[in-house]
């Protein structure tokens, strides 16, 4: 830790390297925690082990930083956001995405001169200016040392600690010290290997454990000139040994669980991993057995227990899975996650709406695995489109527009026009493109979606494609056409009895048309809020409050607008909806200006500016915000004077999200 801190004080990139299981991640997290006071703009950790697609690296980093990818070029948004930040960014587990990580790190360091990066990787990145710290294994004792000397070694201390957890009262004494010393040397002091070995103390004595490892490693030793195996071979042999000590059923479950990049709960493990000599009712006991052997770790959450594998153990299981085929397992995995995303759609107005969003958020790494598996077989590509399309409201709420488009575009390349999944995916891809301001990509997708819908008599797709066409018209500044298309789409939703779609349509229509026809927009917004309250749909209610607030503002009711905006801002902040929060702050600045509170207005414009900047957006480019924004800024500047306005604006910029939200909401 001391060396890492010293290197980071003079280098902008430090890479911790070392064999798998040596403790790079744990060291990086401890170093990052200790350095928080040194970085005024924070320390952010981005875990990459579960990310398997390099094209999603930039959106993933952006999401971790709270940067909504509001444009099709998240890298440019990231660089702009970090340009003046004094921040430490931790990128954990880079090796499997090495070319993408090298490009990301190089561009960030060039564009953000105060940024420092701490990376962990089994390979160095090779970026100019990189400092490398090889993370050593734990110190091991001499075989002929005294008990006191043996107990002092780091490896023995760790073994004793882990051993006492599985066998209360276990300690290294004069009787066990020689065997423990021999065992820790055999394992090369690698923490993960020691963890796995210590887990076996539940079933055997330490002397027996040491003998088994001696026998296992003796064959491997013979293949090397030195008596000590390279560390990567030592860990591999230890994991292989641990696998061999599992029952056949535990081995099969280990392999099957390796598919879950984001961990798994009991119900999902039973649903996906049963079959082929594993009964559903046996899965729970097998999970407990793998926990006892330190193959699985347990995360206790408010919604239950979740099981995880360390990256090295999961990769070993994936290799074993590949050896055995398991096509039926992959089908169950894909079917499970297709059902999950369709049952947890965030666009439905239901009391469980927020819970649906949270479940999808937790399961996203596994959903990505399922979509990748679907795309690896052309016949399964429609399943990927169904998943990505069902998640359209999640992509928007999470600010993952680029990722949503990524999966949709890949699927559309493989799915023929006669598949129903294609016509749905086209309007969803068009909607995400509209939200990113990419109208050029939107129009052809909507045209094809409408054509296919008419040919198939698909009124649902036709209504949604028409609705997105209305959004595109609004974005292009054609307000009257936008309203007409929204009304047409709304009639289609009503005819089908899809009240959730009707409500979302009302939101877009109200917010986009408020300046043109505030009374009509207010009626739509209030109807949407009433619908959300009746359905107890909390996520959509946050949006309905904004719609009511913005229409009240345009109707000349600032006090009502302020109340709605503050309530909406508090909720949107609580669920980390940065786009929604920023819009609320922007409107609250206009309201403060209308009260003659020019310093507060300038400060809130500064808060909003920092948030807009994080998303790569300017309110002057959003047609439904630009007029009120420019009036507010001009009035505040004129009343305060240029110098005082600039000072208040800068103080808002520097407020930081944690302090900005209470300031905005509480006054």
Task: Offer a few descriptive terms.
667 residues; mainly alpha; five-stranded parallel beta sheet
Task: Please write out the topology.
Blueprint (H helix, E strand, L loop, with lengths): L1 H9 L2 E5 L6 H11 L8 E5 L9 H8 L9 H9 L5 E5 L5 H14 L4 E5 L9 E5 L12 H6 L1 H13 L10 H10 L4 H9 L6 H17 L8 H15 L2 H10 L6 E2 H8 L9 H10 L4 E5 L2 E5 L2 H14 L2 H17 L9 H23 L5 H10 L1 H7 L2 H12 L7 H16 L3 H18 L2 H17 L3 H18 L2 H15 L4 H18 L2 H17 L3 H17 L3 H17 L3 H17 L8 H18 L1 H12 L3 H10 L1
Parallel strand pairs: 1-4, 1-5, 2-3, 3-4
Antiparallel strand pairs: 6-8, 7-8
Helix pairs in contact: 3-4, 4-5, 7-9, 8-10, 9-11, 10-11, 12-14, 12-15, 13-16, 16-17, 16-18, 17-18, 18-20, 18-21, 19-20, 20-21, 21-22, 21-23, 22-23, 23-24, 23-25, 24-25, 25-26, 25-27, 26-27, 27-28, 27-29, 28-29, 28-33, 29-30, 29-31, 30-31, 30-32, 31-32
Brief digest:
With 667 residues, the protein is mainly α.
Describe the protein.
With 667 residues, the protein is mainly α. It has a 5-stranded parallel sheet with strand order 2-3-4-1-5, with helices on both faces. Strands 6-8-7 form a 3-stranded antiparallel sheet. Helix 9 runs parallel beside helix 11, helix 12 (248-257) crosses helix 14 (283-292) and helix 30 packs across helix 32. The protein is globular. It starts with a helix and ends with a helix. The relative contact order is 0.06.
Radius of gyration: 28 Å
Beta strand count: 8
Average pLDDT level: 90
Percent strand:
5-15%
Number of helices: 33
| Shape field | globular
